[in-house]
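Subject: for your reference before the review

Hello V.,

The reviewers asked for a structural picture of the protein, and I figured it would be easier to keep everything in one thread rather than splitting it across files. Below is the amino acid sequence we used in the manuscript, unchanged from the supplementary table.
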Amino acid sequence: MGSITASPVAPDLELADFIDFEIDQSIPQDALTRVLSRPPFRIVEGVFNIRDLGHIGHPGIQPGLVYRSGLLANLTEVGKSQLVSELSLGAVFDLRVTGKGTPPPVNLSDFTANDGNDAHGPERAPGAAGFKQFAAIKASYMMAFLEAVQVKYGGMETFVVDVIGMSKADVEAVRAVLRGESLSGDL
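And here is what came back from the structure prediction:
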């Protein structure tokens, strides 16, 4: 990728500034490209929104060790090679709760009228009642989730064991990896 320079429209925009944009407000494309082309983000063919969790200053994760991404279903052969050769990826963990990865059945006939536009969830269209409020979820919501996990389960460890289904040994192994410690066995 070529060198990316500051946006002539918004030269000072940084990643943290994007959270202040309203959902119906456009982010200048050159600013978006510039921000998403540097750490913590990585560009991997066929992967959506992959980022280095250690690069964002998490105290227990070394940079270049743990990545989080969106959908991996479109990962290409080139992307697989990038994960191994450029990111040194050795394992993929799917930490979604049971059922989240299984999409609901789709009636394809719903998508035949109006080029499928009528079936793509009119309730999620910009301007629909509640859309702007839903899209305005901020960091405070994540903090509220973490507080609720603390209250209900006593912490994230209990949550990942009891709800996600990881074993305590897996949790300890993940902790060791995040600290950069070598493991005596495989995960």
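For the response letter, the relevant points are probably these. Residues 1-8 have pLDDT under 50 and may be disordered. Strands lie at 41-42, 50-52, 67-68.

Happy to draft the paragraph if you're swamped.

O.
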